[in-house]
Amino acid sequence: MTFEYTPRGVCSRKMIIEIEDNKVTDLQVIGGCNGNLKGISSLVKGMDIDEVIERLEGITCGAKGTSCPDQLAQALKAYKAG
User: Fold this and answer.
1) pLDDT score of 41
2) Could you tell me which of 30, 41, 59, 63 has the fewest CB atoms within 10 Å of its CB?
3) Whether pTM exceeds 0.90
């Protein structure tokens, strides 16, 4: 299933997440820090969405109260909430 999320409070503009059997199978992030987000995308592929949420939720970026990894966790929580 493809789930699209619009992050808030960060440089990235859109997250497109492929999920199958409660696992992230692909992640594309539009905008943001290209290299870092490619790395995060590669690392979360194959991970259970609950583990991604646990590891990334609450990470901040500079003085912001959130970050792209935190927004990915928020996206996955929104997906789970239906």
Assistant:
1) 97
2) 63
3) yes
Question: What tokens appear for 75 in the block?
Answer: 């996206």
Q: Where are the domains of the chain?
A: 2-81
The answer to whether 64 and 10 are in contact (CB under 8 A) is yes
Residue 81 CA: distances (Å) to CA of 21, 37, 39, 43, 67: 16, 24, 26, 24, 21
Strands (E) across the chain are located at 2-5, 12-20, 23-31
Q: Which pLDDT tens digit goes with each residue over 20-29?
A: 999 999 999 9
Domain at 2-81, CATH class: alpha beta
Q: Helix 34-44 and helix 68-81: axis angle, to 10°? A: 40
pLDDT of the residue at 42: 97
Report how far residue 32's alpha carbon sits from residue 77's, in angstroms, rounded to the nearest whole number.
Answer: 21
Locate 8 and state its tokens: 């808030």
